[in-house]
Amino acid sequence: MDELISRVMAASGLNEELARKAIGIILAFLQKEAPPTEIAELMAALPGAQDLANAEGAAKGGLMGMVGGMMGGNGGVMALGGQLMGAGLSMGQIQSVSKEMFAVGRERAGEDAMGAIVGAIPGLGQFV
Fold this sequence. Notes:
Structural class: mainly alpha
Number of strands: 0
Largest sheet: none
Number of helices: 8
CATH topology: Globin-like
Helix content: over 70%
Order of helices and strands: HHHHHHHH
CATH architecture: Orthogonal Bundle
Distance between the termini: 19 Å
CATH class: Mainly Alpha
Number of domains: 1
Low-confidence stretches: 62-73
Mean pLDDT: 89
Shape: globular
């Protein structure tokens, strides 16, 4: 996880705290939206990922939860983007974090798992 955090920090310019938060938000989203087998492969390939996802998944709610509810379910990628922007990321930083996370995911969990995750979530491909 430290390597992923370092790479996200370098790619996005975020500090460590915000990089951890962004990674956790994305992982929590993927756990809800991605195919169970493939997300399990990704989480297993990234030691510490479950802790970050749990921390941010528990913190989700409030206004973004309400917006997601109005959009049906979790609100998909739009709600994820809103949650990341609410955490303080710009659109450019969101794209940098996403691209770096998925690059590390491909290195660790494999192209098949990551391709299935991206293919299963409408709109996610534009960020990775």
